[in-house]
Amino acid sequence: MGRRLPVLYSLSENYKSLPASFDPRKKWPNCKTLFEIRDQGSCGSCWAFGAAEAMSDRLCIQQQTVSGRAVMVRLSADDLLSCCRDCGMGCNGGFPSQAWNFWKHEGLVSGGLYGTKGVCRAYEIPPCEHHVNGTRPPCEGDAPTPKCKNVCQEEYKVPYKKDKHYAVKVYSVHSNEDAIKHELITHGPVEADFEVYADFPTYKSGVYQHVSGALLGGHAIKLMGWGEEDGVPYWLCANSWNTDWGEGGFFKILRGKNHCGIESDIVADGDVDCIAGLGRGQKKTGIAHAQFTRGDEAATKAGASVLLGRPILVARLHHRKMLLQQLLMLLIAHWSSRKPHQSDRLTDIIEYINNKANTTWRAGENERFTDALSAKSQMGSLFNPGGSMLPTKSSHLSSMQKAALPSEFDARKAWPDCPTIGEIRDQGTCGSCWASPQRFDLPSNLIAFGATEAMSDRICIHSEGKEVVRISADDLLSCCGLFCGFGCNGGLPKNAWKYWAREGIVSGGLYGSHVGCRPYDIPPCEHHTSGNRPDCKGNSKTPKCQRQCVESFDGEYQADKHFASNVYNVRASEEDIMNEIMVYGPVEADFIVYADFLTYKSGVYQYVKGGFLGGHAVKILGWGEENGVPYWLCANSWNTDWGDGGFFKILRGYNHCKIEADINAGIPKIRK
């Protein structure tokens, strides 16, 4: 998939003199690009804009630092967008890291805003109105990607090749607030990406924090400074939606909390779902992808949660088209990882974590996966296409209610009459985590498991222990069809919950249990552990949809259906998630899995070392602290000999590996 960017680390001594606020426009006032706002038009080109804007600023800053004279060059987003073949799909999204690599290896010519003269390649797509009323036409439709033209505009006399500008070095910045600040104040603006919710397009002033509205996708912008407003810390950012959006095209977003993932992917590493213009009630995104391998030594202590290969959310695109894009990403992921990276050998990872890394958890041999590559079949969470979003539930907790949340909570203790809460299932060699709580962009039945486990718990909880039923992952996995995804090759978590509400799901227990209408059809296997079951190798076929119960079950298929009265996505707030679990029961969550997670044995997991494997859906059932480290208590679906009896703890409150970004839940209809 091309070159990954190394992670740049800076010494902590450099952080001691960082000011409370910083605006590069004041430090480098002669670099006029710092003041400018571009307009991407109706093209999902944010990945190219975020890069080209920061590159232009840095060229000027570097020239001023070296020669004392500011040299203004506006690098061409058009050149990058159209000519970088390794960068992705142009107006339909791209790889930010490859954009920076293209600058280094191929160079970029001068450009500028739409219609600019006196430059090699000005932007070709006209501006439009982004979420505002104005004199320009609204941002509607999908602009085609401009053709790659290795020639400059007619009136520009410098030959194309001679107009190229290059980088000496490109890199990703360590995901640490002070490291980002040090990078900004030393070298200038960076490219960052974050998750955009429906309330963000309405931003006018102040420090943005997500309050309400569904997830629209990802967006790349230029992050340029920081400060505080009314005691609230913020990052200062430049958008690419023209000057009549936000505060003259700029905005502020909460700093230091990785809010909406803003601190996860700095400079050009990670994926973005470029949000272009909203033309009066529409949303348009492009697909921005990141590389599928993250296994080099530079990433050992990056601590960044990188969401890779994520398809976009586009309400107007046909559902099946989006599923085909999902499938394409699965194939790319599969083809690009035939050989595990040297640094992904699990024995090396175990040795490093236990003896060299200063971390909060312990690793060990878990032979369910003999190596990192064998684990990819266990990843199965896909990202939702537009039109399938769940409504977002916000608790709107008062400061008093937040303070009243307990320091620890375990659903097994809160509802002891509900045995499903403490059970661990086994998805086998099927990417069905999406039907169980698990989610990733690679083959896996994890999502089906994550969902059905939480559904089962909630039926018992809301019936006050009177109804103990194990909802069938097999029924969800096989009968939801393309609405949910690709069965054992991955699925869409939110649509699993919608299916529960609309179609209902029958009962079904573990493999061979003879419990329920449709028990799980795929045998258990050893997930990264040594044991008496066969190793988890290969990909199981998705079971056939059988709308009838097994012979041993005394009941009819349709009569055994269980339904939800309401399904929703929980706002990505630590307190909202805690309140949801404490009041209504366990939830489904998905997160990003790296190779070291396979080796987890005990403690509070934090990413330390190893390549990206995919997404995974799990059940969150509580929280607490261990040695002062806050954690979420989660149930995996890799049987009881993996991890801590099948359970694990993961860092809480920092959206670590995106664990807090996509929380799904629902209220069951209780039978009378």
Automatic annotation (TrEMBL):
InterPro entries, alphabetized: Papain-like_cys_pep_sf, Pept_asp_AS, Pept_cys_AS, Pept_his_AS, Peptidase_C1A, Peptidase_C1A_C
Domain Peptidase C1A papain C-terminal: 18-270, 405-667
Coiled coil: none
A matching Pfam family: Peptidase_C1
GO MF annotation: an example: cysteine-type peptidase activity
Alphabetical UniProt keywords: Disulfide bond, Hydrolase, Protease, Signal, Thiol protease, Zymogen
GO biological process assignments: proteolysis
Family, similarity comment: Belongs to the peptidase C1 family.
Function: Thiol protease. Has a role as a digestive enzyme.
Protein name as catalogued: Cathepsin B-like cysteine proteinase
